[in-house]
């Protein structure tokens, strides 16, 4: 009888189960192949002015509740200033999560004459970039241009087939009339979407009453970045210069960038101590004194940790405020578009976002509102 009582009591004890381990984060790997021949100034302007809108859309992606890791690569092709021996092609930026670098490289692009070899640049991007072996990631190539798709010595059908075998979806964007793109082979090259855009149209922004507040908070946000290591000062300078570049297309475009900086995809562990300190593998005690900013070099280890804790807390509060304002801003802009009866445009960002949404579904991605 005693055994039964003890056994019964033991059975009523609550077992504390370990919380479920979240699934590993997937990747979104996106290669952007831009024609930089002489007639493509409008395309480059759209890419520069719409980058942050596209990034913000990608930042809203989730898979099984987990935010994916975003990497973007940039190629230019069709420019006479590039080596003929390499098919007038240049890898500008390999797949990277460094969004400031992508922005800086976009703003450095120039146009110049050229021969446009679509098959060659697709083949090059397929072979050169680190796409990874996994089939769970979303791997996308977007190629934009306005010359016949089948020019050059590399067969575009073969290049697209090889990309597809690596799990890469090819999206083709013809800069011009939709039917002309059909006639010149751009649809045949698409394993994903074929689209046409008006590459010379200007990006239209809607001003909101929250823009000034978000812009002012950006100054405080930048102040929370603590540069370290060999990259620290140059990357901090780049962060500020890309703020300036984004504003060349108006304050509303700069606000889009600030919203991107406020998201999880804007991560700078290689040069910012606040981001680096969030990594499990990071050890503040192993950072050499000369790698620190001057104001931290005379601090003790505990003082350095305290300094970073304050910067982290400040950034967290700023992030929260910007997010609240961003939600209000998005709602305001959406309502203004409805009031104006604004139709979906035929610009680079619209084409890319539509394709991304469609193709992400096959990998079980969803997008937060």
Q: What structural keywords apply?
A:
single chain, 369 residues, alpha/beta, Rossmann fold, 2 domains, six-stranded mixed sheet, two-stranded antiparallel sheet, 13 helices, disordered N terminus
Can you give a write-up of this model?
- The structure is a single chain.
- The protein is of the alpha/beta class and 369 residues long.
- The chain is 45% helix and 14% strand.
- The chain contains 13 helices and 8 strands.
- Strands 4-3-1-5-6-7 form a 6-stranded mixed sheet, sandwiched between helices.
- Helix 5 links the parallel strand 5 (138-145) and strand 6.
- Helix 2 packs parallel to helix 9 (251-261), helix 2 packs parallel to helix 13 (348-360) and helix 7 (211-223) packs antiparallel against helix 12.
In short:
This protein has 369 residues and is α/β, with parallel strands linked by helices. The chain has helices spanning 2-11, 41-59, 99-107, 118-128, 156-165, 178-183, 211-223, 232-247, 251-261, 273-276, 294-297, 301-340, 348-360, and strands spanning 27-35, 61-63, 69-77, 89-96, 138-145, 168-175, 194-197, 365-367.
CATH class of the largest domain: Alpha Beta
Mean pLDDT across all amino acids: 92
Count of separate structural domains: 2
DSSP summary, beta strand count: 8
Oligomeric form = single chain
Number of helices: 13
In N-to-C order, the SSE pattern is HEHEEEHHEHEHEHHHHHHHE
CATH-assigned fold name of the largest domain: Rossmann fold
Helix content: 40-55%
| Class inferred from helices and paired strands | alpha/beta
What is Rg? 24 Å
Shape descriptor reads globular
What is the strand content?
5-15%
What would CATH call the homologous superfamily of the largest domain? von Willebrand factor, type A domain
Main sheet strand line-up: 4-3-1-5-6-7
In the predicted model, the low-confidence regions spanning at least 5 consecutive residues are 1-12
The major β-sheet equals: 6 strands, mixed
CATH architecture of the largest domain: 3-Layer(aba) Sandwich
What is the CA-CA span between the terminal residues? 61 Å
């Amino acid at each position: 009888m005693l055994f039964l009582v003890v056994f019964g009591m033991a059975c009523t004890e609550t077992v504390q189960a370990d919380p479920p381990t979240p699934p590993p984060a997937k990747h979104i790997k996106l290669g952007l192949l831009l024609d930089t021949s002489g007639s493509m100034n409008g395309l480059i302007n759209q890419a520069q002015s719409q980058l942050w809108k596209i990034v913000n859309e990608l930042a809203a992606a989730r898979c099984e509740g987990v935010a994916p890791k975003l990497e973007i690569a940039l190629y230019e092709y069709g420019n006479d200033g590039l080596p003929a021996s390499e098919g007038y092609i240049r890898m500008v930026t390999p797949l990277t999560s460094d969004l400031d670098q992508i922005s800086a490289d976009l703003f450095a692009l120039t146009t110049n004459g050229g021969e446009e070899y679509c098959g060659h640049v697709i083949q090059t991007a397929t072979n050169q970039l680190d796409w990874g072996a996994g089939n769970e990631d979303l791997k996308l190539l977007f190629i934009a241009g306005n010359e016949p798709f089948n020019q050059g010595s590399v067969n575009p059908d073969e290049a697209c087939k090889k990309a597809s075998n690596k799990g890469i979806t090819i999206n083709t964007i013809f800069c011009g009339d939709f039917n002309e793109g059909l006639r010149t082979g751009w649809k045949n090259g698409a394993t994903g979407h074929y689209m046409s855009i008006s590459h010379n149209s200007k990006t239209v922004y809607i001003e909101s009453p929250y823009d000034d507040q978000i812009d002012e908070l950006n100054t405080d946000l930048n102040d929370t970045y603590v540069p370290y290591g060999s990259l620290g000062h140059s990357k901090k300078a780049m962060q500020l210069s890309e703020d300036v570049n984004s504003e060349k297309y108006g304050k509303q475009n700069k606000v889009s960038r600030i919203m991107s900086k406020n998201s999880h995809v804007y991560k700078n562990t290689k040069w910012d101590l606040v981001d680096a300190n969030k990594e499990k593998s990071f050890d503040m005690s192993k950072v050499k004194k000369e790698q620190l900013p001057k104001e931290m070099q005379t601090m003790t280890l505990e003082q350095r940790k305290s300094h970073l804790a304050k910067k982290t807390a400040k950034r967290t509060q700023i992030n929260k405020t910007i997010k609240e304002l961003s939600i209000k801003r998005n709602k305001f802009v959406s309502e203004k578009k409805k009031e104006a009866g604004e139709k979906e445009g035929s610009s680079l960002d619209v084409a890319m976002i539509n394709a991304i949404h469609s193709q992400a579904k096959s990998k079980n991605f969803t997008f937060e509102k």
